[in-house]
Model the fold of this input.
Amino acid sequence: MASYLLRLLASILLVSWLVGSLVFFLIHMVPGDPVAVMLGDWASPADEQVLRRQLGLDLPIWQQYWNYLSGILFHGDFGQSLFYQQAVSDLLAQRFPMTLQLALMALMIAVLIAFPLGIIAALRSGHWPDHLSMTVSLIGVSIPNFWLGPMLILLFSIGLAWLPVSGADQPLSWILPAITLGTALAAILARMLRASLLEVLHEDYIRTARAKGLSSKWVYGKHALLNALLPVVTILGLQLGTLLGGAVITEVVFDWPGLGQLLVESIQRRDYPVVQACILVVSIAYITINGLTELVYAWLDPRIRVAQ
Amino acid sequence: MLRKFSYLIIAAWVLLALFGFAIGPSANEVNLNAFLQAPSSQAFLGTDELGRSVWQRLILGAQTSFLVAAGVVFFSSIIGTAIGIYSGYTGGWVDRIVTKIIDVFLAFPGLLLAIALAAVLGPGIENVVLALVVVGWVGYARLARAQTLSLRHREHIMAAKVLAVPQWRIFGRHILPLLLAPLGVEATFGIAGAVISEAGLSFLGLGVQPPDASWGNMIKEGTRYLLVAPHLVLAPGLALMLVVLAVNLIGDEWRDRLDVRQRTRGH
Done:
């Protein structure tokens, strides 16, 4: 267990370093000068020079790279935002919880939709409830969230006036973004759960359980569902990362003040330090979640525990 | 019925994409006298905020998405398959390095990487293709490598090796044909992924830029007029959804056909 956590930590550090360096060098090759963007067209070359020196952008790129790395490592300092005149770490601290909240809510909604769909489809496999729920889930995979979002706004905010259009100020404003983000995940989960349940239902121990007269509830609820959950958990972990990526688009659609929206705005403003930090934070979250998924997997599956 | 429907949609998509070449610059002409018109007999699907025909822009968008999808799938499948076969066949340290690279790519959310790349490369259709190929080759490489590993010690390959058949010929004639079916399924889902990703990047303003039409930037422009002219969002969104749905249905069908276990079980 301890050695597993240690390995996980090492791989998080390695990939974070790779990702961080990659993003740093990629971004510094972007055509487009942040100083020119900040000062506008009418700035004098002297002013630009001064600002460039203040921001450390006149140093050779290796020096900048070293400052960047050592800042994060030794001070947890991601630099200053060029646009907000604020420490990037403060911005992250404001925005990250919003994205996390959205992702968790979306996950909850996905599970709430996927489990009934997947279970019904598996139990009635080959009949109309199966076809119906699988068609619904296929449609769910195929709707891009930047279209579903506006459609939901049109229906629930403008048509029915039940929910707020965008932003995060009102108490119920998380519902539409979470549904938008959760739908695709729900569809994938439902299909996965169906396939996995069908696999399990053909196993010998299910026949044994039925033969010794256990009730359907007990057979399906405990013997089948718990075993079928194993691959689903893996997919859930992998998809949570995709959720973080999808959150970028959903946050832009709903004007949700999370990391994704910050990322897109900062790209347009050429706010390098913020872009770097956003990508780094999302990647670290993604890698960490994937690692933790394996832990949950081991916890769920006694066979793996015994093997350890 | 669903199957016919999906092939029909794909055929319509390809036809629209071809038809896009016949539409001249008139699709980009601004006509402020006719802005934001609802669909009517004069303007099928109505007009947008600059008075351009939504129908014509939809066709140009179909062309964009088709070109991007074709480009992305073509290049990423060739690059990925070549790397995968070579790595799996050669083994040793080459294989270990390639596997590590694949792992690092997979340890990173794909869309985020595409966003970062698109941001760095700047907008434009070629850059969208490039960004999506950089993200997309990994899937093919992993698949081709895994399959090659299991094929490497088959007798027909051994025989070819003994007969001193050159390596590229073994790859092309003796391994690749056996990989085509699973790679085809992967490529089908790859088309759906590329169509959605292109539209997503364009929606974020990182992909195809106006005045060039893409379903993604049409939706983006349309959301600003959601109240007065919902058809601006409805039309490209529906087109996008139908194409992705149809491609996914075909991919599902092909995958089921490949899966012998499922077929004998009678699902």
User: Anything to note?
Assistant: Chain A touches chain B through 46 residues (CB under 8 Å). The mean pLDDT of chain A is 78. Residues 164 and 170 of chain A are 7 Å apart (CA to CA). The radius of gyration of chain A is 24 Å.
